[in-house]
Amino acid sequence: MKIKDIKAREILDSRSNPTIEVKMVLEDNTYAISSVPSGASTGSKESLELRDKDERFHGKGVLKAVKNVNEIIAPNIIGMELNQFEIDKKMLELDGTENKSNLGANAILGVSLCTLKCLAKINDKELFEYVSDGNYNMPIPMVNVINGGAHADNNLDIQEFMLVPIQKKEKERIRCASEIFITLKGLLKDMKLSTGVGDEGGFAPNLENNEKALDLLVEAIEKSNYIPGQDVYLALDAAASEFYDNGLYYIDNKNLTKEELLDYYTNLINKYPIISIEDPFEENDYDSFKKLNEKFNNKIMVVGDDLFVSSTKYLKQGIQNNAGNAILLKANQVGSITEFFETIKLAKENGYKTIISHRSGETLDTFIADLGVGLSLDYIKTGSVSRGERIAKYNRLMEIEEKLN
Asked: N or C, which terminus of the chain has less Cβ within 10 Å?
């Protein structure tokens, strides 16, 4: 089946910033539409998200990326047979840079994702079925219910405080998270604290320190009639590059060395039912990731996000250095589905836990839910159980679970 038409346009994401939407039409009029998410705290090694940097939208317009799809990518791949590897390869050749800085990772991913969706359709399969080797797994949600760092205008340094409900059924995990979220809202109201939400739908109160957020989560779990460390665990995304400067980490109103920060995390892990810490150190400190990993001997997930940026190149460095034992997976960090799948394959082959993830600037596209299930990934991060662009992914997960049953 050949590609008949490709058209990109500028739309808005969940933070009211522009992003790119792409529609691909095949010769039999089968079509797919994809929209590309955008991060707030981004690793310096990520592929480039092309922005216009002019007077529109405070410089965040994506008309250049739209133009690159419509005037460079489309003329080169219209008429091609629908083949994921060949289409991605053609776009990477057209771009010609390691970090997608000519065409933009957002332009490339929009087309790459449409290709995948069209392939599923012409094979008369849903996306989760098409990407599967016959095995499915409902990924455990990591639900961001308190936002800090770059995701909120409050005084918390740690970017995400997450619930990890481990009930057998996905719908029960989501129900559990929802009940705790509503309980947490009541606790914050009683304390006369803000119940406004941050970029990813979690609450964003001002609290005296990061531990207070964890205390609140434990209380909300218990008041919702669940057992912390048995029904529900906790996870953190420190996003430590955001509070790192000149060799020191500024956290809880103190400057800490990397050794002192390791002790800080050790105290939290010993005190609370934490099973995962993402980006505990700045994005180039493989050695500290290794020390935290070895200290807890795989008892918790030490997750690389900015460390690996979903790239085989950086994941290989992590594997060689024993830096971490889990990887966060964001398609727009690498820019093409082919490269994204290569990273997932490498992670699985080396025993790394896999966590597919949204971005803080999201759309209603639910492809991460399908990929999480179809590729048998371990966990999924798609924000809190509030805001429509997050809920869309949870609803899709429950829909897929019903189909599989």
From this structure: C
With a CB cutoff of 8 Å and minimum separation 6, the contacts of 283 are 43, 44, 45, 241, 306, 307
In the numeric block, which tokens belong to residue 83? 């083949």
* Contact between 184 and 191 (Cβ < 8 Å): no
* Exposed/middle/buried for residue 262 (C-beta within 10 Å: 0-12, 13-18, 19+): middle
Cβ atoms 15, 21 nearer than 8 A: no
Q: Would you say 120 and 21 are in contact if contact means Cβ atoms under 8 Å apart?
A: no
User: How far is the C-alpha of 340 from the C-alpha of 337, rounded, in Å?
Assistant: 5
On whether the CB atoms of residues 96 and 39 are closer than 8 A, the answer is no
DSSP, collapsed to helix, strand or coil, labels residue 275 as strand
Burial pattern 166-190, b for ≥16 Cβ within 10 A else e, equals ebeebeebbebbbbbbebbbebbee
Which residue of the set 330, 353, 381, 393 is catalytic?
330
Establish whether 179 is a catalytic residue.
Answer: no
With DSSP H G I counted as helix, E B as strand and the rest as coil, what are the percentages for the chain, rounded to 5? Answer: 40, 20, 40
Nearest to 265 by CA among 244, 248, 284, 251: 251
Residue 200 is a catalytic residue = yes
DSSP class of residue 285? -
* DSSP conformational letter for 28: T
pLDDT digits (tens, 9 = 90+) for 382-397: 999 999 999 999 999 9
Catalytic residue chosen out of the listed positions 200, 242, 339, 389: 200
Strand order from edge to edge, sheet including 3-12: 3-12, 18-26, 31-35
Closest to 13 (Cα-Cα) out of 35, 41, 30, 29? 35
- Residue in the structure block whose two tokens are 């290569």: 342
Complete edge-to-edge strand list for the sheet that includes strand 248-251: 244-245, 248-251, 254-256
**How many angstroms separate the first and last alpha carbons of the chain?**
32
pLDDT tens digits along 305-326: 999 999 999 999 999 999 999 9
| Integer Cα distance of 220 and 205 in angstroms | 15
Return the minimum-mean-pLDDT range out of 151-155, 234-238, 248-252, 343-347.
151-155
Q: How far apart are CA 91 and CA 109, in angstroms?
A: 10
